[in-house]
Amino acid sequence: MAEFKQVAANRKAFHDYEIVEKIEAGISLLGTEIKSIRAGGASIREAYARPQNGEMWLYGAHIAPYGAGGYVNHEPTRPRRLLLHRAQIREWAAAMAEKGLTIVPLTMYLKDGRVKIELGLARGRKQYDKRQAIARREADRDMQRALRHSVR
Question: Fewest CB within 10 angstroms: 18, 81, 126, 134, which?
């Protein structure tokens, strides 16, 4: 059974985007980066992914420098290669080009000792869509509360 330990989450992505499809990808990291991630020094809030030359790259993810890294430390916001199958990369690149979608990282987690990232193929929401989503969520919460109190 695979063990998951969430390291970073992009909660704002679910607010700003409508997620059409999700996929799990590995990340090509340096030694000091994995140590920093295990210590909790990762943020994917401003990150996005983009295909380039047949590969998928993660831009804008911040992995803090490792404290004991010394002179061999990594650059915190360098582009990182994502590990996906070629067919998956081509499919998502075509969806980005045709439908005007974007690829946003949703969560970063450790799975069996390896860092994985969940990517979402997303469509941007307009301001009124965000308000509708919030209103729907609050209405569902109110209904759940009412049901809980009526049972007693």
Answer: 126
pLDDT of residue 74: 81
- The reply to whether CATH 2.60.15.10 applies to domain 4-126 is no
DSSP designation for 73: P
**What b/e string do you get for 111-124 counting C-beta neighbours within 10 Å, with b at 16 or more?**
eeeebbbbbbbbee
d(CA 40, CA 43): 9
Question: Cβ distance 36 to 66 under 8 Å?
Answer: yes
Contact 39, 6 (CB under 8 A): no
- Token pair for 17: 């985007």
Task: Indicate the average pLDDT of the chain.
Answer: 87
Whether the predicted pLDDT of 145 surpasses 90? no
Per-domain residue ranges of the chain? 4-126
- Taking the whole predicted model, whether its pTM rises above 0.70 is answered as yes
CB-based contact 47:104 (threshold 8 Å): yes
